[in-house]
């Protein structure tokens, strides 16, 4: 069960800093074992957002599947199942292993470009496990 569901009327501000730790997909802390809570941000069609927060202590497992098309990451968070689809998700699995993934943002629509970040999240689905 998520700790918090918050709706915002404004879209997330894009990261002004281009580095391996942040982008339109979210943020990874450069310090391993430093993050206590992970946040998933889902975009809605009306430019509002839903934010779900889970403490790392309730994450029980994650599975990453690389395929020809989009990759898929499934995270068990308490009684919820968080399914993330996109590209470059192996980097997110590394961050999960190190308790360093702070925020993960959905970026549906246009899709990745060759000059974009190596990580791209097309969808985040949160359901009961």
User: Helical element count?
Assistant: 1
Quaternary structure state of the chains depicted: single chain
Q: What low-confidence regions span 5 or more consecutive residues with pLDDT below 50?
A: 6-18
Radius of gyration: 14 Å
The strand line-up of the biggest sheet is 1-5-4-9-3-2
Mean pLDDT: 82
- How many β-strands, per DSSP? 10
Order of helices and strands: EEEEEEEEHEE
Shape: globular
Distance between the termini: 10 Å
Question: Beta-sheet strand percentage?
Answer: over 45%
The biggest beta sheet reads: 6 strands, mixed
Percent helix, as a range, is under 10%
Tally of domains: 1
The secondary-structure class comes to: mainly beta
Helix and strand topology:
Blueprint (H helix, E strand, L loop, with lengths): L3 E5 L13 E2 L2 E3 L8 E7 L5 E7 L3 E7 L5 E7 L2 E8 L1 H9 L3 E5 L14 E9 L1
Parallel strand pairs: 4-9
Antiparallel strand pairs: 1-5, 2-3, 3-9, 4-5, 6-7, 7-8, 8-10
Summarize the structure.
By secondary structure, the chain is mainly beta. The chain has one helix at 89-97; strands spanning 4-8, 22-23, 26-28, 37-43, 49-55, 59-65, 71-77, 80-87, 101-105, 120-128.
């Amino acid at each position: 069960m998520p700790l918090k569901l918050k709706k915002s009327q404004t879209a997330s501000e894009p990261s002004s800093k281009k580095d391996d730790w942040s982008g339109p997909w979210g943020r990874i802390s450069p310090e391993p074992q430093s993050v206590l809570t992970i946040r998933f941000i889902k975009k809605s069609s009306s430019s509002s957002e839903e934010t779900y927060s889970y403490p790392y202590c309730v994450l029980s497992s994650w599975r990453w599947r690389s395929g020809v098309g989009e990759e898929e990451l499934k995270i068990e968070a308490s009684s919820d199942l968080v399914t993330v689809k996109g590209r470059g998700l192996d980097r997110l699995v590394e961050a999960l292993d190190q308790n360093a993934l702070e925020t993960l943002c959905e970026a549906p629509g246009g899709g990745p470009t060759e000059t974009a970040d190596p990580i791209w999240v097309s969808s985040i689905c949160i359901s009961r496990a």
